[in-house]
Amino acid sequence: MIGIRIPEPTVEVKPLSEDIRRSMLYKMLQIRYTEEKLQELFLANAIRGTTHLCNGQEGVSTGVAAALRKGDTVTCTYRGHGHALAMGMPLKSLMAEMMGRVSGCCRGKGGSMHMTDASLGLLGANAIVGAQLPIAAGAALTAQIEKTGNIAVSFFGDAASNIGAFHETLNLASVWKLPVVFICENNRYGEYTPQHLTTPVEDLSIRAISYNMPGVTVDGQDSEVVFAEFSAAAARARAGEGPTFLEMKTYRYRGHSRTDTGPYRPAGELEAWMERDPIKILADKMIAAGQLDQVELEELTQSVQREILGAVEWAQREPYPDPEELTRDIFYEG
Amino acid sequence: MTVLTYREAVRNALADELRSDPKVIFFGEDVAVAGGVFKVTPGLYEEFGGERVRDTPISEEAFVGMALGAAITGLRPIVELMFADFIPVAMDQIVNQIAKYRYMSGGQFVVPLTIRSAQGGGVGFGTQHSQTAENWLMNTPGLKVVVPGNPADAYGLLRGAIRENNPVVVLEHKGLYNMKGEVPDDLGPLPLGKARVVREGSDLTIVATQLVCQHSLKVAEELAAEGISVEIIDLRTMVPLDSETLLSSIAKTGRLVVVEEAPHASGWGGDIVSLAADQGIFYLDAPVKRVNMGNVMFAYSEPLEKLAIPSPERIKAAVREVLAT
Question: Is B215 a catalytic residue?
């Protein structure tokens, strides 16, 4: 069995309230089974294009979203269904977008890689690696100048820490002390290639040192640890102390995209990480605290699956965009 | 009416917009404390403060992307990319992000963002500090592109760009910064998308912008002495393109020469010719001619640079050729 190093928390991790736990558990189940359903729909050619699933990484988006406030903003990656659902995007809105329907969050013009809902603070999922970091820093600039007390968050993968936009943005955000938190979801692979072949450091958080900002490596599989570490970073940002870089150690159960089964992964690695499944970790804590039992977990899972099926069936009946949508919103008219 | 240099006109436009709207912010390399490498922005930092007027690191991708993030969350950022040759450094943010953010979100965002950049040759800056950028940008739907050719336009069109609720790239010509011209005292923001007939004529239409528009004016004046009447259209904005002014001019003159300070291949002159062929073919009495940089690039040495940019002599030769057919 491959061993997994679990980073030590750098802040006190208190058990969250039963309400927050319940909400996080629900969101993680929603993300997990949405991704499973999407994979099935893609393989059945019921959805076109490509998709990048985040099963296994649910603890990160869910733990962060639970600690955000209204008015905070998020940019994320093309592996972004989890961030969208964690931030509260309705399942129907996501499913309709996946199917290119006009009732999708982007009127069907974004698709799998661009789940966006400005009303929830979701400023866009991005299909260009690293491009979302400066955009979040810009939202943080608005918060700083307008003194709103809001913060911006940017999610990105381990491979994005090798692209120029990452380094440029960390540098500038630190110089201007912007209220932004950079969250690297280190799932160990940049597309098909393991981190050690592309990156000379193992803990990416040390890259924060040269930008004079705190860098913390976090156990991304435990949503309560994520919540606690992120809350500390968010408090720093809100207090005007500038950005923080959080590296969340996590794992994607699926391959990079639609047809990748991940044959490049060493035997046993997936199984070892599944032992540290984020849903299981939270559910076990709730069971131990008497907040949940197996029967209830099973019922919750089934109800989430029914909800997803309902959203799929609904979305499949929704109309496609009218031809006029092709030329609409290239420019704002007015 | 006040006589201003192109440089002063740009500065006044920035100052007037920063003054009229607290949501307007301005940042770029050396624009604040130093007042800009072309001395276009002195005094803005002193008047509006370091919160709204900021110096950035040499990180074009980051600060252009930050302008987008600021624009979609309620500010009206203006960023300066010192030389238009640096636009490709930030091309991902400009092409993949800024231009597409509204469209691919299904209209969720308004992107009131202005990028200013100094382009063009003629001043000896060599291969990587002289290029024009319109053609790189016009191929991307979602961007408006402005090319002011005199001080009044530098003032009015920049203010118009900053007021736009869409991304606009304003390409100032660095060879025109010292150009003087009258700017009406009551001039406000000008609407984008209107070309101007800068010289009326009846025998032939020249379409041009910025430095080569000045060259064309010189040519027109010289030819007038021979009794040849050349009409000159300054496009002023490349996107949106004012096809009406172009078509009504060739309806009058029947002859067309397009002058571009840019390479030939995929150049905007091809769009003008295509428009003339598609909607104006029956107005034309002669084949059209493009005068541009062919497929060469800017060189440092003065005689070579002069050969690359359409000169008055080359423009005049093209005009004579079209008039002779």
Answer: no
